[in-house]
Design goal:
Blueprint: E1 3-4, H1 5-12, H2 16-24, E2 32-33, E3 39-41, H3 43-57, H4 62-70, H5 72-110, H6 116-123, H7 130-140, H8 144-155, H9 158-180, H10 188-204, H11 210-222, H12 224-227, H13 240-261
């Protein structure tokens, strides 16, 4: 059975120009011509085209494919072995690039310039959810506070992060102890812990007035990804995020009242 160049192009998912190019290159010449001189391809021609397209998909040049097709039994195996080696090396290179790109994304979205190994060493169970970091960055990208926070985070050294996380862990232990002991969210102890958290943010990231601290605490109560930044899931208790939110709001009200009394 014979097929026109247009039919073959449709079958193979290539352009007519590509088939003409293969013909001119001597790679795939149609077996016949119509009475009007148009190219006609046989089933054998289609089988050869399949081979050509297979090798093209693997990245072989047309010259290499022509060499292989001169004697497929003698030439194909060695060419394929070489190409497997090249593809494996390229896969490794692309994987390394992907890792670098992922780290760049994390730096842009979290401000943390640490390797994955250093992150695990410093942060332990505390993780950065990139979906949350992305949403936060998009939402607050024009905020002076967000810009300052990202810049200061990016400037922190590994030792800075160790100190920061040590302070956070000590604060978290006090928070959990107070909550487990039934400390009311508007009590002095809870509000003092809320104030300590606010000052921690101001010390390491950006100034954190009461209104900003309220917004941060609101996120803790409504978004588990945000709360996981301060209390890892393995240490969380039912109602703890809401308790911290109420303590932050109570402390903010206390600070506002204190300012008004001055």
């Amino acid at each position: 059975m014979s097929y026109s160049v247009g039919q073959v192009a449709a079958f193979a998912g290539v352009t007519v120009r590509t088939l003409h190019h293969y013909d001119r290159a001597g790679l795939l010449s149609p077996s016949g011509r119509s009475g009007a001189g148009y190219r006609l391809y046989s089933d054998t021609d289609l089988a050869r085209l399949q081979q050509i397209l297979f090798y093209r998909e693997l990245g072989f040049s047309l010259d290499e494919i022509a060499d292989i097709l001169k004697d497929p039994q003698a030439n194909a195996l060695e060419h394929l072995r070489v190409r497997v080696g090249q593809l494996t090396a390229e896969i490794d290179r692309l994987r390394r690039l992907a890792e670098v790109a992922e780290q760049a994304i994390e730096v842009q979205q979290t401000g943390v310039r640490l390797t994955p190994e250093e992150r695990f060493d410093v942060f332990g169970e505390i993780g950065f959810d990139l979906s949350y970091a992305t949403e936060r960055q998009i939402k607050w990208q024009d905020s002076a506070g967000q810009k300052e926070s990202m810049a200061r985070a990016a400037a922190h050294t590994k030792e800075d992060w160790r100190q920061l996380m040590g302070e956070a862990a000590a604060w978290r232990a006090e928070l959990l102890a107070a909550y487990d002991e039934g400390e009311p969210s508007d009590g002095e102890r809870a509000m003092d812990l809320a104030e300590e958290h606010r000052l921690h943010i101001a010390s390491w990231f950006t100034s954190c007035p009461p209104d900003m601290h309220r917004r941060i605490a609101d996120d803790f109560a409504t978004d588990p990804r945000a709360f996981a930044l301060v209390v890892p899931p393995s240490q969380q208790r039912p109602g703890l995020a809401a308790h911290l939110r109420k303590a932050v709001h109570a402390n903010a009200a206390r600070r506002v009242a204190s300012e008004e009394d001055r």
